[in-house]
Amino acid sequence: MVLRFLIVIFSIFLIGCNFSDGKDTEIISLPQGDLVGFAKGETDYFLGIPYAEPPIGANRFEPPKSHKGWSDVLKAKEAEKQCMQPQGEEGELSEFFEVFLTKSGMKWWEQIILENAAWLFASLDFEKEQSEDCLFINIIKPSKIDNGSLPVMVWFHGGGYNFGNGDGLYITDRFAKRDVILVTMNYRLGPFGFFAHPLLSETSKMGVSGNYGTLDQIQALKWVQTNIHLFGGDPDNVTIFGESAGGASVETLVSTKLAKDLFHKAIAQSGYTVGRARNIREQRGDLISAESLGEKFFHSISGIDNPSVEDIKNLSADLFFETEKFEKENDSEQAGWFPIEDNWVFDSPTQISFTEGKTNDVIYVAGFNANEGTNLSPFVFGEKLKENDWIKQTWEMSDFSYLPLPDDVKAYGESLEYSKERSANELWGDLAFGGDGFFMVNQFASNGGEAYLYYFEKGPSSDTQTLDAAHGLELFYLFDNIVPFWPWKKIDDGIRDTMLKDWTDIAKYGKPRSDWQKFDPNNPKAMHYGQRIEFKTPEKLSLYKSLEKVYLEEGKNF
User: Fold this and answer.
1) Tell me: the pLDDT tens digits for 272-306?
2) Phi and psi of 176, rounded to 5°?
3) Which residues make Cβ contacts (< 8 Å) with residue 47, sequence separation at least 6?
4) Residues 466, 530: one domain?
5) Where are the beta strands (DSSP E) in 457-550?
């Protein structure tokens, strides 16, 4: 009874505070047509603006095409459908977020409320309606822009290239209050974003297929270059940033010539492109080629022996997520959907582009969290950790399992004084994210680029929490759209405000206006966001340097 009462109270409160109930903005006239958003307080919101033609029908598995436009005034007041992605049971929290709640230090009754009322909160909205017609952009700006044009920050959401969208948690007025225009967007995910097949390549103008999700991101950046001045933004001062798959997207966009001059600064949060170098037609490490994967995958989900292009473009969207049979038959070759080295969008793997200095001329910022594995490794370790071989087992769960376990990494694992489970979480998180972030910054700076490194190490403010600085936790601070009941204290306010200032200072001035200094490969230091905010040498520097040797050795195989 009490639980139902609380849920009703929450419902009434949220219904009474409908986000899009603000007054209309002035009409904005784009080349594609007129649109109107809504204003709340001193911030204007324009949601659900199409930046490309719907990728459906003949446009399925094709590069995005510029939107043809509309005739009536477009009411850009609600975020549109998210791109196609796997979904769980309606009304349930994702397993990923269940880990957040159970390890956060929340009281048991607070967790129950959120588990039963997740759909009420933007930051917990995992059951959003989806469609292949999903290429939309959102813009949040100050209502009044007094002097000239404002810097622009374009956000790419995370979700392993399989989940997520550009609204919910990310629709915030925090950036507008610091005189920065925030742009968020959807891009094609999973097989719809990164499926390659010989038949699709044969009919493509460029002779390759896949990378549609990356091409969507590039199309959105082109849209920003063409249109953002109409919203008061400066197309010559664009910063891209993103987390997890969004951070990996930032890394890849820095490396592709197709994105040259579309942005000027880049912030990669917990990116992970190292070791993920699937080639369009050649096997790399233990990764089969993208086209071979596509052939196996399509046959498994469709049952068609000799498909045509029409079969591929007309297959029911739902069947692309009926992957259980495929995963059982191809355990080591599961459909890992991510950007492909195709000699068009990407001439070489991202890590090679960074190593050889073949990147776009931008200011590059990257970082990662202290405990990335806490909320991810439970899904990675399908079996219980072995008592004596947990270090080897953790290595085999990384993207470098086909390489021998380095002695330095083994020694680091043996030095950890935590429980076996926590030690494995810690090591796996650094193998997946920490090593990548350090490597990319070090290579970028070593090739003469201006780079900055950060390290986020603040967990929930609770004596009973076991989450620590988990994967994605910095988003609660950066976007300030935290989960109700989240353990939070005054120290968290300080980290939140400092991070936002540093991020927006990078967008405004090209560098943070704090003690955060440029990365020096000869004296590596990072800005730490934790119990203290300070610029210092990372404690795990020896591990990151050991992993860098692995990455450089792996690169010789490309």
Assistant:
1) 999 888 999 998 877 899 999 999 999 999 999 99
2) -60, -35
3) 20, 37, 76, 77, 78, 79, 80, 136, 138, 139, 167, 171
4) yes
5) 526-529, 533-536
Residues 46, 138 contacting (CB under 8 angstroms): yes
339: tokens are: 């950007």
Q: Are residues 302 and 215 in the same domain?
A: yes
Distance of alpha carbon 156 from its chain centroid, rounded? 6
Alpha-carbon dihedral 409, 412, 417, 422, rounded to 10 degrees: -30
**Dist. CA 256–CA 254, nearest whole Å:** 6
Q: What is the pLDDT of residues 141-159, one digit of tens each?
A: 999 998 789 999 999 999 9
Whether residue 303 contacts residue 313, with contact meaning beta carbons closer than 8 Å, is answered with no
Q: Decide if 122 is inside a domain.
A: no
Picking from 241, 242, 251, the residue whose alpha carbon sits closest to that of residue 272 is: 251
Q: Are strands 33-36 and 74-75 parallel, antiparallel or unpaired?
A: parallel
- Within-domain flag for 1: no
Of 329, 356, 384, at which residue does a domain stop? 329
**In residues, how long is the chain?**
558
Torsion of CA 440, 445, 366, 184, to 10 degrees: -100
This model's pTM is above 0.85? yes
CB 154 within 8 A of CB 185: yes
- Residue 262, domain CATH: 3.40.50.1820
Domain that holds residue 193: 23-90+127-329
Domain for residue 304, yes or no?
Answer: yes
> pLDDT category, 4, cuts 50, 70, 90?
very low
For residue 257, report the phi and psi dihedrals to the nearest 5 degrees. -70, -20
The pLDDT-based confidence of 556 (bands split at 50, 70, 90) is confident
SS (H, E, C) 180-222: CEEEEECCCCHHHHHCCCHHHHHCCCCCCCCCHHHHHHHHHHH
Instruction: Give the count of alpha carbons within 13 A of 105, CB side only.
Output: 13
